[in-house]
Amino acid sequence: MHVTKALGLSLLFALAACSGERPIDDTSLTSGADWAVYHGNANGTHYSTLDQINTDNVKNLKVAWRFDTGDGFGEGGSGSDMEGNPLIIRGQLYAVSPKGRVFCLDAAKGKQLWVFDPAFGDVVNTKQRLRGVSYWSNAREERILFTFRSKLMAVDARTGVLIEGFGHNGEVDLKAGLGRDPSTISVSNVTPGVVYKDLIIMGSTGNTPGHIRAYDVRTGALKWIFHTIPHPGEAGYETWPKDAWKTAMGANAWSGLTLDPENGIVYVPLGSAGMGNKDFYGGDRAGDNLFGTSLVALDAATGKRRWHFQLVKHDVWDRDPPTPPTLITVGGKPALAQVTKAGVVFILDRLTGQSLYPLQELRPPASDIPGEITSSTQVLPLKPEPFARQTLTADLLTQRTPEAHAAVAKTFATVRSRGAFDPPSIGGTILLPGMDGGAEYGGAAYDPQTGLLYVNANEMAWILKVKKQPPLIAGRSGEALYQNACATCHGVERKGSPPEFPSLVGVAQRLTDAQIERQITVGGGRMPAFAQFDAADRAALIGYLKGDPRQTAQKEAPAYPSTDGDPYVFDGYTRFLDPDGYPAIAPPWGTLSAINVNTGEYAWKIPLGGYPELADQTTGSENYGGAVVTAGGVVFIAATIYDNRFRAFDKRTGKLLWQTTLPAAGIATPATYSVGKKQYVVISAGGGKNAKVKPGGEIIAYSLP
C-alpha cells in the first residue's frame, strides 16, 4: 500500500411506583447536577461541570450504595452483558438490566422506586444488550423510552406505567415500515434514540436495511424516514447494484446518534453495507455502497440529508463507526470527532462535513477473491495520528515467553499482514486493530476546558478469513439452515468464539428444546431473531444441534437464506492469540489516550488494564465502555475486562489517582451527578466479556465520605 497524495480539508409490570408528581423544569437538564441524556448530554461529550470530587480528594471515594438488579445470569461470562449508561434526572436514576428490565432508583440511596418488565413476566433466557434509555418531558408529563427486542416502548417516568396511547398499547413495532415483510426480518436497537423536540430518532440493528426513523414521542407515529440504502432517484443509489435497495441489509446506526440541538442536526454513524457473511464479502454489492460505513448529518426535523462523509468505501472489514460522534470545538469552529474501530479519529466541520485536518488517500491492494471488487482508494486522517497500531509486523509479535513467541510466529508466517484495508483472504489476513477496535461502543470523552479528547482503545490483532460456500444439502435440513444462518458466528464446527459467540457444542445438555427454540425465535445479545424460520425449520435446526446433522424439516424448499451470488462466506471471528490465550501482539493490549483537538497532538497515552495473573501489570487489556471527564480534573473509566477495575486519572497528565475492584467488569460508560450537595459517580458492573468469570448485574455508586 502506498500514499498517493494528501487531500485538503402497563401497570401490572410497573411495581412500587415513584411517589407523587413533581414540577418539571427543563432548564435543569444539564450534565451538571443531572445526567439526563445518554453519554451525559446531547452533544455526547461525557463531560460534567461537577467538581466536588477532584484530583485532591478522589482517592477518598467510598461506595455510597449498591443495587443488584437480580438479572445477572449465565456461567462463563456469556449470559450478562450490562453496557448501560444510566440517566439521572432530579434525583432519580433510570437504568436497564441484562434482561432488559427498566429500573427507577433513588439516586442518593440506591433504593428501588419502580421496575418495568417489557417481557411482561415471560422468561428471558439470554442477555438483552441495551445501553440505556431516552427521556422526554413537557410541562405536564415525563416519559422514558426504550427498546426491547423489536419494540420501541414508552413508560411514565414517575410511575413506570406503560403509556398505552403510545403506538399500539404502548409499543411501536420496529419491523414495520422498512419495505420488507415484517414476519421475515429481525430488528432491534442496542443504543437509545435521541430526543429532538417531540421526536425520538432511532437507529437499529438486525437483518434489515438500517433506515433512520423518527417517531412522534407522544403517539408513536412515524414522522420521517431516511433511506440508508438509497431508493431509485435518491443520492447514493448509483453506488449499489440496480435492485439492491429491495434486498440489501445493513448500513444501520447500531451504535447510536448524536444531536446538535442548536443547529437542528442529528449525526448518524452508519454500519457496514452487509450483515453476517456480507460484512466481509461484497461480490453481490459492487460499488462504494453509500451510506454504508459513513457519517451522515440529517436535518433532525425532516430527515433530509445535510452532508455525508464515507469513512470506508465498499466495506469488507466491518470497519463501521462503533460509537456516535462527539461534538467539539476546534479553533472556535463547531466540529465533531468520530473515533473508529480502525484506531483513527476523523475531525470534521460540524456544519459542512469537511475534514479540519489533512487526509491521506491510500491505494490499497485489490482483493484476490473471485467476484470481489474492493475500492481502489480509501482515506485516513494524517492528523491526529492513529491511537492504535495499524500494521502487525514480525518485530511486534509477543515476547511474553519464548514458547508463545515461537507459536505465534509460526501462525504469522501463514497469514497476510499488509496494513490498513488489506482485503479478506482465504489464507487469512491480519486485521489490526481487530474487529472490536480500536475504539469501541463507549466512545470518546471531550473536555471543553482543555480541548482534550479522551479515547480508550483495544490493540488486538484478529485473523480475517473467507472461504468457499460449502455445498448445501437439498431441502431445508438442519445442517443447511445452520450453515447459512449460524456458522458465520458460531463456526462450522459449532465451537464459537466465546463469550461473544458461545460454543454450541453440547448445547442440548445446557438448554431444553423449548429454550433453544425460544432463542431462535426472539434472539438475544448479538444474536438476531430468526423470524423467517417456521416451526419445521426450528425443529430441524434443533435436531442438528442435538447431533442429527441430516434432520430435515417436513417440507422441501430451497435452503434459507439463499446463497446465490455468494460463492464465498466469512470463516468466523478469530482473535490472534498465543497458546495460553494472551494476545499474539506485544503490549500494550489496551490504552487510554488524551488528544488535543486544536493541534492534533497527543497530550499523553497510557496502558489501560491488565491481567491479574501476569507479573507485568502494565500490559493493558481489552476494554469496553467509555470514560467520563469532569471539571474537577478527573477522568473516570472502568471498561477493563480482566482486572475488573474502576479507575480515576488526572485528566491533564494521565496519572492514576484512585482505583477499586468491581464485583464484575464495568463494560459501560459511568455517569456522574449530584443530589443535594453531594456528587456521585455510578457504574454498571455486569461483566459479560470475559468467558472465564461469572458476570453480574449490579449498579454501584461512589461518593466522598
UniProtKB/TrEMBL annotation:
Keyword Lipid metabolism appears in the UniProt entry: no
Give start-end of the signal peptide: 1-16
Q: Could you identify this protein by its name?
A: Cytochrome c domain-containing protein
**Do you know which Pfam families this protein is assigned to?**
Cytochrome_CBB3, PQQ
Oxidoreductase found in the keyword field: yes
- Provenance organism: Asticcacaulis benevestitus DSM 16100 = ATCC BAA-896
The uppermost taxa in this organism's lineage are: Bacteria, Pseudomonadati, Pseudomonadota, Alphaproteobacteria, Caulobacterales
Cited SUPFAM superfamilies: Cytochrome c (SSF46626), Quinoprotein alcohol dehydrogenase-like (SSF50998)
* Family designation: Belongs to the bacterial PQQ dehydrogenase family.
One example of the protein's molecular function in GO is: metal ion binding
